Amino acid sequence: MKQQSTRSILLGAAFLMATSAIGPGFLTQTTHFTDQLAASFGFVILISIFIDIGAQLNIWRIIAISERPAQDIANRLLPGLGIVLSILIVAGGLAFNIGNIAGAGLGTNVLFGVSPEMGALFSGIVAVAVFLVREAGKVMDRFAQIAGFTMIALTIFVMFSANPPVGEAVTKTFVPETIDFLAIITLVGGTVGGYITFAGGHRLLDAGVKGKESLGHVTKSSVSAIGIASIMRIFLFLATLGVVSSGIALDPSNPPASVFQAAAGNVGYKIFGIIMWAAAVTSVVGAAYTSVSFIRSFSKTIDRNHKWFIVGFIVVSTAVFATVGKPVKVLILVGSLNGLILPIALSVMLIAAYKTKIVGDYKHPLWLTIFGAVIVVAMSYMGIMSLIEGLPQLF
C-alpha cells in the first residue's frame, strides 16, 4: 500500500469517527454543559478526552490485531454474542440516525427557510449519493474530511467573535470549581458510545489496515480521531463561554443556535446552519456505514450488496422523520440501550485481547487493559441509570 494512500485512509478513518461523533447531540451537549458549568467545563472535556482515548485505543487495536470486525470477535468469544452486539448497534444507530436526519433538516431550515421535513429529505439524498458512486469508500473519507475541516474553521471564527475569557478557561480546566461526573459520562457516551467508536476501526479493516505491522498506524489514527472531535469540542466550548460570560442567556430550546447568533449576529446564525447540517449529514453517513458493517459478515448476500443496505438504512431513517416528524416513544428505550453498548463492546474486546484463538501471540499492554476495565465499570453504571430513567417514559 502506497504511503500517500495509507495516510489518506488513516486520515479518512479518523475523520469518519470524529464526524460521526460531531452530530446534533454533540453541539447541544457542549453548549448546554458550558452554560451550566462555565469555565469548569474545561475540566470535563479534559477528563473525557483521556477516557475516550482509552476506550478507542483498546477497541481499534483488537479489531486490527484480530483482523475481524467486532461482531465476529464477539461470536468467537461466545457464540451468539456478536448477534446481540449487532442488534444493539443497529437499533441504536437507527434511533440516532433519525435524530441526525432531524438535525440536518434543522440546518437547512436555518440556511434556506425550507421546512425541516423537506430539508431532511434533501439531506437524505445527499447521504445516499455518497454511497452510490463507484469509489464510495474514498468519497466517504473525503466527504468526512471536508465537512470536518469546514465545521472546525467556522467554529474558530465564531469563537474569536465571542471573545472568550481564555485565561479563566485554562485555569479552571486544571483547577475546576465544580466537578460534574454526569457531564463526563455524557461526553464520553457522545464521543465513543454506541456505533461511533467502531466507525473508524471498521473503516480501517475494510481498507486493509490490519495485523501487527499496522498497529502503529491504527494507534495514530485512533488518537487523531479523538483529537479532531476534541478540537471541535474545545472551540465550541470557548465560543459558548464567551457568550455566557457576557451575561447573555442561551435559548434552552436551541442552545447552540443562540450561541452562534449572539456571537456573530445573523452571519453567526447562518454559520450555525452550515455546521448543524454538516455535523448531521456526516453523522448519518457514519451511522449507516458502521451499522451495516455489523451485519455484513453474517450473510454473503449482505456483504455483496452492502452499499444498498447502507442506502436502505438511510432511506428508512429519513422516511421515519419525514412521516412521523418525531421519533416514537420506543426510540427513547433504544437510545437508553445505546448507553450500554460501549461497556459491553469494550468488555468483549478486553477479554478477546487475551484469547490466543483470536489474537494469536499478541500481548496487549496491561495499562490499556486496566484503563479499559475502569471505563467499563463507570459506563456500565451510567448506562443502567439511563435505561432505568428511560423505561417509565414508554408507559
Mean pLDDT: 87
CATH topology: Amino acid/polyamine transporter I
Q: Please indicate the percent range of residues in DSSP E strands (runs of 2 or more).
A: under 5%
Q: What's the total count of β strands? A: 0
Number of helices: 17
The arrangement of helices and strands along the chain is HHHHHHHHHHHHHHHHH
Radius of gyration: 20 Å
SSE blueprint and pairings:
Elements: H1 3-21, H2 24-37, H3 41-66, H4 70-77, H5 81-112, H6 116-132, H7 136-162, H8 166-174, H9 181-192, H10 196-206, H11 215-245, H12 255-293, H13 300-304, H14 306-324, H15 330-352, H16 356-359, H17 366-390
Helix pairs in contact: 1-7, 1-10, 1-11, 1-12, 2-9, 2-11, 2-12, 3-8, 3-9, 3-10, 3-11, 3-15, 3-17, 4-5, 4-15, 5-6, 5-12, 5-14, 5-15, 6-12, 6-14, 7-11, 7-12, 10-12, 11-12, 12-14, 15-17
Protein architecture, described:
The chain has helices at residues 3-21, 24-37, 41-66, 70-77, 81-112, 116-132, 136-162, 166-174, 181-192, 196-206, 215-245, 255-293, 300-304, 306-324, 330-352, 356-359, 366-390. The protein has 395 residues and is mostly helical. The radius of gyration is 20 Å and the shape is globular. Residues 327-335 have low confidence and may be disordered.
List keywords for this structure.
single chain; about 400 residues; mainly alpha; Amino acid/polyamine transporter I; Divalent metal cation transporter
Please provide a brief summary of the model.
The protein is mainly α and 395 residues long. 81% of the residues lie in helices and 0% in strands.
